[in-house]
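Input sequence (442 aa), recorded before submission:
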Amino acid sequence: MKLSRLLPVSAALLAMWAALPARAENLLELYESARVYDATWQSAKAQYDANVFRAEQARAGVLPSANLAAGLTRSAFESTVPAVDRGIITQTATLSASQPLYRPANFATWEQAKRQVVIAESQLASAGQDLILRVSQAYFDVLAAQDTLAFVRAQKAAVDEQLASAKRNFEVGTTTITDSREAQARFDLVVAQEIAAENDLRVKRIALDSLVGKPDVQPSPLVAPITLPSPQPADVNAWVQQGEDNSPAVQQARVAIDVARLETEKARAGHKPTVDLTASYNVTRSPHGTTTVGTGTRNNAAVVGVAFNLPLFAGFATQNRIRETLSLEEKAQADLDVARRSVAQSVRTAYFAVVSGQGQVRALEAAEASSQSALEANRLGYQVGVRINIDVLNSQSQLFQTKRDLAQARYNVLLGQLKLRQASGTLKPEELARLSALAARP
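Predicted structure, token format:
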């Protein structure tokens, strides 16, 4: 078959594929995409790797070191008694090595480095939890914006129907022009709300696309009705204890105290001696002789020894350094207290926000049912002449506003549960898998 015949078929297939709706992705899938694309997360991961390699550098202070040095010199030698005039070449090579035997400052630095790795791990865990929350926020923002637009359009259709009814009743003389004008004003207002809702959805989609690195992301909607489980355990003090044990901020502050104590040990080491094991091997060769020897020479020398150094006086620098590090220890302890109190406050705030949100959802569910009943009653009253058009319009507006508030409240509860786990330091991708199970498959 000729290529010219295949082109129309390929174009048609491409057009059909492009016309197909994009596959909806759940929250866990979007999180995995964000881990690969998000620059903030990649920056945190690179910083973690750098911190690990920096910590490994401190280990060099307790490991042996070796050096190789070589040199070549040429000099002119001239003497009258006896008469000598020649160039002298000297070749040298030295291999030296040392092993710290007692260097308390170096060993304290190595212990500090180990704890710096723990701090880096906590920082990376905090960045991971922040990414989970940012993806979830963008995900639920898009779903809420979609719901808002759907409710506005449904309200627009209902108002349009009410406007048509008002016009028909005016034409037959059963109502005044006021009903038509009221319905028209409400319709124009809903059109403006629809434009604003469309733009808000567009902005929320752009934010989600920018976060996960994909164009035109279609987040999977949640199944209805949504089950909103209560926080488990249902005790705020238990959540506070979890924050005390698992919060990255508390862990970093706790390890920072150990780092500060080791810094004090390093300062006190300024009064202590150092002991190193040293060894060297030197070769010196003069192929054309020296100033005293006319033939070629070669000298080999091997040295093994112990180097001892004891600081005697450093102008009170060591004493003041110790005072400085002791003050930094107090600061680290105060920072730990601040971290604990901040985490406890954040956990309590997040816990009661979830509990309050669940109560708000229940109240809005009851309000939705009541608003639906009120709308039906007003419609019936309008038909029999005991209610006017504005009553129906107000009932419609109240119902759709309640629906929007209810949808937003449900998303806020789901997001609040993630914030509660973030505050307590227990937020993990597995929580996204649980929420993804609530997503409706296309």
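Checked by second reader. The first helix runs from residue 3 to 19.
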